Amino acid sequence: MKKLIAAALLAGAAFIAVPTAANAAGYTPDSDVSVSGNYVAGGTATVAFTPGAFQPSEAVRVQVTGAGNVTLGALPTATTSKDYTANADGSLTVRVTFPAGGSGTYNLTATGATSGVTGYAAFTIAPAGATSVAANGNTGTPGQLAFTGGTISTLGLWAAGGAIVLGGGLLVVRKSVRRQHDAA
Fold first, then answer.
1. pLDDT by residue (tens digit) across 140-157?
2. How far apart are CA 65 and CA 70, in angstroms?
3. From CA 150, how far away is CA 154, in angstroms rounded?
């Protein structure tokens, strides 16, 4: 019976430890990312990550996906990815130039090489000759990022998971005590 309880406790510990390790790198919160610029074909947007978004002087890989090639900084690239170095305070500014014939949604992902922290920005580009479209394409307010998270806190989810594990452990202990009492 002791082995069963020990196995249940180890399983519970693994249940809690594995997702925690997977989420250790984390994401740059939306409040640490600002987007400005002209979201039209041929326009340029500036994505700024605030101080502390990345580790000081960390290498950061920036990738942009969308319908057509974009220019990161001064270099037009076919792969739409480029390596940058965060400033001494962990901030980073990236300029994205959209293709002259481009339109549709473009997504920027910046990932710190050391910290693994990832920041996101999304753009909806209007065709040439159109007016600017919002950065997230939903609210009509330039500079706002798309909401990609949930409204349930992570702490609440962990508390609920912990309660389930503890409840299962209590059931195992109760069954063990009942068996010992019946055997006596």
1. 334 444 555 555 667 777
2. 8
3. 9
